[in-house]
Amino acid sequence: MVLKLSTLFLRTLREDPVDAEVASHKLLVRAGYIRRAAPGIYTWLPLGLRVLGKVEAIIREEMNAIGAQEVHFPALLPREPYETTGRWTEYGEGLFRLQDRKGADYLLAPTHEEMFTLLVKDLYSSYKDLPAYLYQIQNKYRDEARPRAGLLRGREFIMKDSYSFNIDDEGLEEAYQAHRAAYLKIFARLGLEILPVFATAGAMGGSKSEEFLHPTPVGEDTFVRSAGGYAANVEAVTTIVPEAIDYTDAPAFEVKDTPDTPTIETLVECANEVAPRTGNPWTAADTLKNVVLAAKMPTGERRLVAIGLPGDRNVDLKRVEANISSHLETGGEVELEAATEDDLKKHPTLIKGYIGPALGTDDAVLGLEGSSKILYLVDPRVVAGTSWVTGANAPGQHVFGLVAERDFTTDGTIECVEVHAGDPAPDGSGPLETARGIEMGHIFQLGRKYAEALDLKVLDQNGKLKIVTMGSYGVGVTRAVAALAESNHDENGLVWPRNVAPADVHLVVTGKQVELFEAAQKIADELDAAGVEVIYDDRPKVSAGVKFSDAELIGVPTIVVIGRGLADGVVEVKDRATGTRTDIAVDEVVAELIALAKA
Ligand code: ATP
Ligand code: MG
């Protein structure tokens, strides 16, 4: 059906919405694709739904092609299954929880592992039933701390989520690879540049995991890559651990007065005055900085964690968050923030600016000690035998030559520092460079975590009950619409790739004569009959200028102008992306446009 602008439910806007920061958000609202309903929650208008439908259709085709079958779960779910896996609590503030009239707990699903697991448990009982790949395209709800950039990070959003069920690990690997290949095809067909990067599994648990990042400066994910082909989310980068150093001959540590040195900068300056080293002045890299963080546990408890790292580096909170769950034994996601004055007051032995490991004396209650009440984790570069300048747990004092392992212990290592450009790739493939991207998809080998928790077992070849192994695979569908808009626009508006555009052709009539409208209507009908999707700007009282700017804003790939040229038997065909204009004979234009649309 031809979409006529005289009746289409659409109002384009000249002004950017005040809450919009990124181009995709501004343009999708201005061009009439979406409207904000509440923070991070959007209404889809007719044009938007057409793009969304095309994105979904591509995803469906590729999922069906790997033998996945579509189902559809409710978004409103009971608490119990999520209680069983621990996620009712572990999901923290991100989960929308609610109650029915009887006071029973429900949630709006942030993702559906539990329900898929239970469904398969309900219906399947034998290895012969497997493998099974199931998926849905459905609303998800997450009370994001920072809903942002329109559809890019919503609180309600659409995800394609699929789940694989296999009897053994080889099967899981096959399912994972099938999804990986399908994802590469999906993003290629969408016209979205994608880089698969290694990731940490976060709250999902499980082992192997990759994210599909779309490189763009507006992305919230920092990733790194090397010339040799390594690519990873910074959370997942691992440090090449230096070899331990023999400390048999290392001199004993010394506590020195270093007045007014609460920062690394002041400390380095002071160290070079009170303990000058000839030819090798102290630098920030010689210092061990101890940063105290507060972990907001899923239980509501606030636990302090101290992180020790070389003083020339900063803590990357996201990396700590991604890697800390095993140390805190929460099993789930933990939010971290810098410890407050109040937090520190509860531990009077921590002297801000002078915090260091316990010095191995009899009264080792001062400072950070491995296995003490405050978990003390260090950067992997702090290996046995490395010698540090660090806080002496007394105001205005630091300790020099404190040797790891000999003089202090820790509760383990953690990937915690900001990854810098130039750091070596963990696989030896060269120095890393950093870039930003949007996470478009994420695939996980979950393994047996959910099947175990929910008791999904089937009979194996020997008639024994065996726990099923699972994978879970997500694509951000509404986020894909935003990413496409973000990467396909210019100063005048959206520039959709043909595969996802709301229509193929946008017809504009300029002028008042009835013949112009008749000619346009005829072209529109012929295109429509040939299966070419048409937007027809048939508004009689709207100026040519407004029609042109609306056409540019809406961003359909081919714009056809039916105006003055018609008297000479030609119409103008304009390519939205390149701006190229060509006059084409009016009796050839339909064939030409069909060829363009079907190319
Ligand atoms: P992010 O790190 O961006 O918060 P996530 O890792 O929490 O995402 P997953 O649980 O892996 O997300 O969900 C699968 C996919 O769903 C993501 O790759 C992303 O494309 C999409 N997605 C996740 N959260 C949102 C959101 N708030 N708004 C829109 N899409 C989202
Ligand atoms: Mg993810």
Automatic annotation (TrEMBL):
Any one GO molecular function term: proline-tRNA ligase activity
Catalyses which reaction(s): tRNA(Pro) + L-proline + ATP = L-prolyl-tRNA(Pro) + AMP + diphosphate
Keyword Cytoplasm (UniProt): yes
Pfam families: HGTP_anticodon (PF03129), tRNA-synt_2b (PF00587), tRNA_edit (PF04073)
Its EC number(s): 6.1.1.15
Keyword Nucleotide-binding tagged: yes
GO cellular component annotations of the record: cytosol
CDD domains: ProRS_anticodon_short (cd00861), ProRS_core_prok (cd00779)
Domain Aminoacyl-transfer RNA synthetases class-II family profile: 35-497
Keywords: Aminoacyl-tRNA synthetase, ATP-binding, Cytoplasm, Ligase, Nucleotide-binding, Protein biosynthesis
GO biological process, one term: prolyl-tRNA aminoacylation
Enzyme class name: ligase
Subcellular location: Cytoplasm
Residues forming coiled coils: none
InterPro entries tied to this protein: aa-tRNA-synt_IIb (IPR002314), aa-tRNA-synth_II (IPR006195), aa-tRNA-synth_II/BPL/LPL (IPR045864), Anticodon-bd (IPR004154), Anticodon-bd_dom_sf (IPR036621), Pro-tRNA-ligase_IIa (IPR002316), Pro-tRNA-synth_IIa_bac-type (IPR004500), Pro-tRNA-Synthase_IIa_type1 (IPR023717)
PANTHER family on file: MITOCHONDRIAL RIBOSOME PROTEIN L39/PROLYL-TRNA LIGASE FAMILY MEMBER, PROLINE--TRNA LIGASE
Function: Catalyzes the attachment of proline to tRNA(Pro) in a two-step reaction: proline is first activated by ATP to form Pro-AMP and then transferred to the acceptor end of tRNA(Pro). As ProRS can inadvertently accommodate and process non-cognate amino acids such as alanine and cysteine, to avoid such errors it has two additional distinct editing activities against alanine. One activity is designated as 'pretransfer' editing and involves the tRNA(Pro)-independent hydrolysis of activated Ala-AMP.
Domain description: Consists of three domains: the N-terminal catalytic domain, the editing domain and the C-terminal anticodon-binding domain.
Quaternary structure annotation from Swiss-Prot or TrEMBL: Homodimer.
Family in the record: Belongs to the class-II aminoacyl-tRNA synthetase family. ProS type 1 subfamily.
The protein's name: Proline--tRNA ligase
Gene name for this UniProt entry: proS_1
